[in-house]
Amino acid sequence: xxxxxxxxxxxxxxxxxxxxxxxxxxxxxxxxxxxxxxxxxxxxxxxxxxxxxxxxxxxxxxxxxxxxxxxxxxxxxxxxxxxxxxxxxxxxxxxxxxxxxxxxxxxxxxxxxxxxxxxxxxxxxxxxxxxxxxxxxxxxxxxxxxxxxxxxxxxxxxxxxxxxxxxxxxxxxxxxxxxxxxxxxxxxxxxxxxxxxxxxxxxxxxxxxxxxxxxxxxxxxxxxxxxxxxxxxxxxxxxxxxxxxxxxxxxxxxxxxxxxxxxxxxxxxxxxxxxxxxxxxxxxxxxxxxxxxxxxxxxxxxxxxxxxxxxxxxxxxxxxxxxxxxxxxxxxxxxxxxxxxxxxxxxxxxxxxxxxxxxxxxxxxxxxxxxxxxxxxxxxxxxxxxxxxxx
Length: 391
Ligand SMILES: Cc1cc2nc3c(=O)[nH]c(=O)nc-3n(C[C@H](O)[C@H](O)[C@H](O)COP(=O)(O)OP(=O)(O)OC[C@H]3O[C@@H](n4cnc5c(N)ncnc54)[C@H](O)[C@@H]3O)c2cc1C
Known about the structure:
Blueprint: H1 9-36, H2 41-49, H3 68-79, H4 83-103, H5 106-118, E1 123-127, E2 143-147, E3 152-163, E4 170-183, E5 186-195, E6 201-205, E7 217-228, E8 232-233, H6 239-275, E9 277-278, E10 281-282, H7 287-315, H8 321-346, H9 356-367, H10 374-384
Parallel strand pairs: 1-4
Antiparallel strand pairs: 2-3, 3-7, 4-5, 5-8, 6-7, 9-10
Bound molecules: flavin-adenine dinucleotide.
Flavin-adenine dinucleotide binds near residues 135 and 369.
């Protein structure tokens, strides 16, 4: 379902094919995987076969070569069926593959991208958050020290909450580390491409999550992990900029998940409201229910335009960062609103664990936290308005 009258024929076709795939492959498995909290290699391979793991990479590296908005439509459609599968795809593309594509050398791109696009090389993760530093990225403690004799970097430290960081398909992680001081207490940050099988790297899956239960989330421990100097992504000292620019784009895919969840919540609630009768008529004919559905529809229509405009600015290399933060903030709130109202329309049935509206209500909570909390989005927006520049 799209409210956009500007959608191209290719985008409509893409939505329909992703929808058909999700209906056939994700829908029948999602609940059981969620209940077991199990990451599915089989389903991830099927998504790889569809090209979803190389969504925005050009055909020269084996990707689908989608424009940004089409990629966002892909994530949006998957999220309407299962947040966990959408998260696996979005984290791999936006946080794993994209920085290699934007900042990698030719050699790094040739080495990593073709296998990551087809899924043969597995999944790539993004390791920024640590036990003592989430929003406050500058507070990370993981360190990289250069060993000039062997021309290798030695990494020590730990990360937590890393999507795709410990799955059987994890091929590597882009890791942010402190690599020096720039004077006046300012730290130098560098990003490293670290293979999952590097000696000294231990990945532990984080179980019993309340959200995204069948996506893989990891704790990572680096004990004198050594990588050659050509595993630096971008240049030494560029790490903070690379991670922040990755998050600017990544925010759009979290926003897409919020939009996808909201549209599906409306579809489910509308269907149920027409079938469920009370006091001699379908509940959709009670004004209180009809108004809930109407408000969901109005909010979705407005928020979709905001997100798609941010994507359009991004893909046309125009300033999009403020709109991306606004989109993430609004789409996360939209998902919370639509799943809450949707759950209300379902009555008691909406509170059962097996109901999709309940899982969506639950999974929507992550959207206000991951890739920058709501508060961090407001900080980005306020800064871009010239209002606030302290934290
Ligand atoms: C399922 C899952 C998957 C994730 N995947 C990844 C991943 O792939 N890679 C990765 O690096 N990270 C990942 N994360 C981590 C996520 O990005 C962080 O949880 C998030 O950035 C918040 O950090 P925190 O949890 O440390 O909260 P904190 O930073 O400790 O914040 C706690 C609260 O304080 C508020 N707060 C903090 N500072 C301020 C301030 N200055 N002003 C106002 N309010 C403030 C926050 O908004 C929040 O409400 C994931 C998390 C989850 C749960």
